[in-house]
């Protein structure tokens, strides 16, 4: 089920501004890959390029090739909604749909893509909520609004919503930065479980988190403000955090810059 | 180490002297008494002047007393809060006055006859006569105008906010802004020249004809910019992360707008639509110009003259009959009640879609 992602010379722009340049990396199936680096280095831009969310902003475009199991997601014939269904995304701030109940939020992806059968939706909702470790907390109030949950619960609701459409890759853009340590722990445990089925790529500013959850780590950086972000080093997480081969990575990891 | 000073050992008292709770009431009573003595003693006015003068004296007295006991900052705080409350009362007064006038004067003809009959064959000495034809006219004209403008206005706002790029969208926004300022008489003249004189003869054996539908068109011209502008503002208030959340689930853009963006903005959109309806229901000039008014019941909005409540009020208020003013007041009351009922109903409907916390 999980898919291999290959990025070749990926360059992304916001209008005339080049945000990332010539990113080359391969993400293996059923792994957790962490993207780390200083603010503005293009981690999130690269992440958003993978499921074509980058182009949602006016003037934004991507060059190069990005393939999922050999299929280029930027091919002219590719249906962008199919790409996004295959590659789910969790955002920095929880964004449950305010007009929908917990149940409706979880099945929003299915329902808005045409699934109508009640029994299918009910099963999918329970499965996704259990997978997101949220079922026990919300099973008695599925009809209540999703916006009424706590921040950590909302984020897990958004994860449940993402995995309810059964994607093969899950992208997470700093999913814990707005959460307290306990909710963060819950989501990190969730990532361990999800790893069995999904390829996960996570952007994080928290290096302990990167070392805890990921198998591979990619370090992005920029020379100076205004320059495009580049991939500096990409290796096994243990190697990056104990014996990085590039001086700049070591400086960042040890807190000497960034 | 010179810039960092150690806190002085002097104990700071957090408590301060306060005016007792009865002081403002006492000052108010004293101010009113003083104002009454001055006004009636000098023989210069009535109760209204007493209240106004009393309010001014109260503000001055409150400031002076608070300044003496509590200090300058507290005195200004008290004076400003008193001023803000007075401003609120001042703003509500005209509204309360309007409602009271409408109810007290409109109650006289608030009977079944008023709502069941028209002005057909009602002479100057006939105390009967009603606004049935006008109520029908208002409902039909505003209803048709709403049917035209709500889909058009909401779609236009969706285009401008979600799809429009560059000059064309900018031009639309600009002209919608310009349209907001169109006086109702101009929209009436436009429909008179365009619809009544040019288009309607085609359907009417070559003779131009007034109709309720023409009035609905004129009202549409007035309602459309209000609906577009308010819907546009509401759509812009929907946070971008909600749209991105839906896109990231593989939901197409049109479906995201229909199922996520519009429901989120719905309460605000309904408010904007109701404002537009309220404005249109109160218009007199366009109806007079293109529907012509009329004393008889005409249920067909596509043919012949029709009246409306606003027009009925205008005509009855200017009528020579001694029974006409009462009819005008009751019609005005009916118009306000109609708009109120519609607004409350729309708000309740919109709220039913929202989840209760």
From TrEMBL, chain A:
Keywords: ATP-binding, Nucleotide-binding, Translocase, Transport. This is Phosphate ABC transporter ATP-binding protein. It comes from Micromonospora echinofusca. Residues 5-247 form the ABC transporter domain. GO terms for molecular function: ATP binding.
Automatic annotation (TrEMBL), chain B:
Pfam families: BPD_transp_1 (PF00528). Keywords: Cell membrane, Membrane, Phosphate transport, Transmembrane, Transmembrane helix, Transport. InterPro entries: MetI-like, MetI-like_sf, Phosphate_PstA, Phosphate_transprt_permease. Coiled coil: none annotated. The keyword Membrane applies. Its main location: membrane. NCBIfam families: 3a0107s02c. Part of the binding-protein-dependent transport system for phosphate; probably responsible for the translocation of the substrate across the membrane. This is Phosphate transport system permease protein PstA. The lineage of its organism: Bacteria, Bacillati, Actinomycetota, Actinomycetes, Micromonosporales.
């Amino acid at each position: 089920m999980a898919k291999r992602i290959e990025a070749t010379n990926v360059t992304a722009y916001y209008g005339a501004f080049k945000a990332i340049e010539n990113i080359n990396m391969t993400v293996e199936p059923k792994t957790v890959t962490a993207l780390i680096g200083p603010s503005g280095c293009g981690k999130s831009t690269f992440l958003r390029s993978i499921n074509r969310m980058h182009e949602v902003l006016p003037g934004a475009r991507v060059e190069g090739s990005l393939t999922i199991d050999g299929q280029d997601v930027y091919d002219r014939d590719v249906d962008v909604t199919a790409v996004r269904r295959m590659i789910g995304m969790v955002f920095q701030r929880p964004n449950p749909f305010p007009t929908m109940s917990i149940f409706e939020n979880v099945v929003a992806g299915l329902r808005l893509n045409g699934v109508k059968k009640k029994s299918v939706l009910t099963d999918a909702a329970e499965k996704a909520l259990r997978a997101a470790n949220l079922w026990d907390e919300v099973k008695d109030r599925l009809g209540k609004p999703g916006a009424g949950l706590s921040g950590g619960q909302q984020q897990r609701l958004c994860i449940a919503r993402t995995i309810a459409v059964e994607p093969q890759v899950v992208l997470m853009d700093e999913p814990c930065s707005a959460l307290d340590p306990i909710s963060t722990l819950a989501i990190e445990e969730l990532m361990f479980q999800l790893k069995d089925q999904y390829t996960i790529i996570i952007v994080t500013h928290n290096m302990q988190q990167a070392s805890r959850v990921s198998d591979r780590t990619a370090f992005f950086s920029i020379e100076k403000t205004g320059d495009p972000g580049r991939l500096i080093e990409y290796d096994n997480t243990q190697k990056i955090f104990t014996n990085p081969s590039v001086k700049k990575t070591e400086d960042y990891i040890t807190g000497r810059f960034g | 180490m010179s810039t960092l000073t150690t806190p002085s050992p002097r104990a700071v008292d957090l408590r301060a002297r306060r005016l007792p709770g009865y002081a403002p009431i006492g000052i108010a009573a004293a101010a009113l008494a003083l104002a009454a003595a001055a006004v009636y003693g000098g023989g210069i006015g009535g109760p209204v002047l007493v209240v106004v003068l009393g309010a001014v004296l109260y503000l001055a007295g409150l400031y002076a007393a608070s300044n003496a006991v509590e200090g300058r900052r507290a005195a200004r705080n008290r004076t400003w809060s008193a001023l803000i409350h007075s401003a609120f009362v001042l703003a509500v007064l005209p509204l309360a006055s309007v409602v009271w006038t409408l109810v007290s004067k409109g109650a006289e003809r608030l009977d079944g006859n008023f709502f069941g009959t028209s002005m057909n064959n009602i002479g100057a000495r006939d105390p009967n006569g009603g606004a049935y034809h006008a109520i029908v006219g208002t409902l039909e004209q505003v209803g048709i105008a709403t049917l035209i403008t709500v889909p058009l206005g909401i779609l236009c706002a969706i285009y401008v906010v979600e799809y429009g790029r560059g000059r064309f969208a900018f031009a639309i926004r600009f002209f919608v802004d310009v349209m907001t300022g169109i006086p109702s008489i101009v929209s009436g003249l436009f429909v008179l020249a365009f619809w009544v004189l040019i288009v309607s003869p085609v359907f009417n054996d070559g003779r131009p004809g007034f109709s309720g539908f023409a009035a609905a068109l004129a009202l549409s011209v007035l309602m459309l910019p209000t609906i577009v502008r308010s819907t546009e503002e509401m759509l812009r208030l929907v946070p971008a992360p909600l749209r991105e959340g839906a896109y990231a689930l593989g939901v197409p853009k049109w479906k995201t707008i229909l199922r996520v963006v519009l429901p989120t903005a719905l309460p605000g959109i309904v408010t904007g639509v109701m404002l537009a309806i309220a404005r249109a229901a109160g218009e007199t000039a366009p109806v007079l110009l293109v529907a012509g008014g009329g004393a008889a019941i005409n249920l067909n909005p596509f043919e012949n003259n029709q009246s409306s409540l606003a027009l009925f009020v205008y005509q009855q208020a200017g009528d020579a009959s001694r029974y006409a003013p009462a009819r005008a007041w009751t019609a005005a009351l009916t118009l306000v009640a109609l708009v109120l009922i519609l607004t409350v109903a729309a708000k309740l409907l919109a709220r039913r879609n929202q989840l209760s916390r």
